[in-house]
Amino acid sequence: VQLAVDAADVSLDGVAGDIEDGCDLTQRTAGGEQPQHLQLLAREFFAERGSRPALRAGNAAGEYPGVGAAVDDVLHLAAGPRGRSGVADRLRDVGEREQGVCQLHRHRAAARQLDGPAGERRRRVERTSLGEDPRARDELELPSGRRRPRWSARLLRAEFLKIRKRRGLFISTVALTLAPMLVAYVVLAVLHATDPATHGSAGGLENFSGSMEVLTQLSAVAAILVGATLGAAISAPASFASSS
Amino acid sequence: VTGRSRLALFAARVPAGLGLLLPLVGAAFAITAIASTALAGSEEASSGSVLVHSAGWLALVTAPSFALALGISSLLGSRGTSIGILLGWQLVAMPLLVQFGALGAIRAGLVDAATNRLAPSALDDGSVAVPMSLVAAVVVLFLWTAVPLAAGAWRTCTRDA
Fold it and tell me: Which of A6, A36, B43, B111 could form a disulfide with A204 if both were Cys (CB 3.0 to 4.6 A apart)?
């Protein structure tokens, strides 16, 4: 009778169900709410009271890094161009990931029941993929129990690609750095070639010093353009949601 | 979606921005260095040490400007306003303040004074030199880089959606 009651409870209200490591093969999938809904409510609760650190501490505990990260961004998604449909897509993605994890746990539970070499091999593979080889863990996109590094090569490449794709900014930077030096020395060389008596050599330390004086100023201006563009891009809420 | 924190996204933009900026500035410097050497003719050409020193100095001038702009722009949340303020500061206000002798040692806290202190002696452009030690110049440049970045990171992390 108790099992029947629990099954019905999980089906109707999965959020309140207990989390068990191996999952319970007898339990059905929650028919209504998904776990992330509860965290979303918690997020709203803490956000209203200015207690974000408490929620972040919960995320850092690593119980549901995928869900926690999604909750971190869901408000930004809601404010984005796709609005509620974007939020719905995000929640569905996270739900699918959590279901995948649950399925893996079921496989582990089944592996424990195997005897002999087959069972041992299966358990060794799982130990490698889940505990001892972080690369395999990343490939499976499993919750690792700890936060990812603050930045990675993939994130750097993505950020660099985004800024490089800003054609106007790229052209402006080229126009402020490369173009003036190229034009200046071409003009000086042509002037010297046409009238050497009046115009001295295009090169030399004196011209180099003058060029550096101009280049430092223009490089500082280019740096301001790039930095200000990046900083303002960070401030836009959509950038948090689209950083994939 | 990466699920990265705002701090991680902010931190990633520093090397990303420098990754765009420094190669272009380096290419411009390469044109300058090659042309000044190859087209020197009968005039004195720049020595290797001067070129290396100048390249490092150029990077030292560029990187703090980028960090300052990134931090201020994150702090203000506006690209146009930040560019206007920073260009006015960089091209007008700071050079004037450095030349304003009544300010005395306070001028040593300006980026221009620190970069002038670190500039190669062969590139003396006749600008006013504020007396300061090498360590003080490095500290000033570090502060002008780190403080705006810290302020921008803080604002990015605490900004409402």
Answer: B43
CA-CA distance, A25 to B107, in Å (whole number)?
73
Instruction: Identify the weakest region by mean pLDDT among A55-64, B19-28, B79-88, B135-144.
Output: A55-64
Query: Which pLDDT score is estimated for A202?
Result: 85
Mean predicted confidence (pLDDT) in A216-240? 80
Cα–Cα distance between A56 and A177 in angstroms, integer?
43
Inter-chain residue contact A228 with B83, CB threshold 8 Å = yes
ipTM, interface predicted TM-score of the complex: 0.92
Give CA angle at B134 (B56, A215), nearest 5°: 30
> What is chain B's length?
161
* CB of B44 closer than 8 Å to CB of A205: yes
B36 CB near a chain A CB, below 8 Å? yes
- Judge whether residue B144 has pLDDT over 90: yes
Nearest residue, CB atoms, A235 vs list B25, B44, B159: B159
Q: State the Cα–Cα distance between residues A97 and A66, nearest whole angstrom.
A: 8
Secondary structure (DSSP) of A211-231 = HHHHHHHHHHHHHHHHHHHHH
Q: How far is CA A44 from CA A13, A51, A90, in A?
A: 20, 10, 17
Distance CA A243, CA A119 (A): 42
Cβ contact, residue pair B45, A205, below 8 Å: yes
- The answer to whether the beta carbons of residues B110 and B64 sit under 8 Å apart is no
Please, what is the angle between helix B111-118 and helix B134-158, to 10°?
140
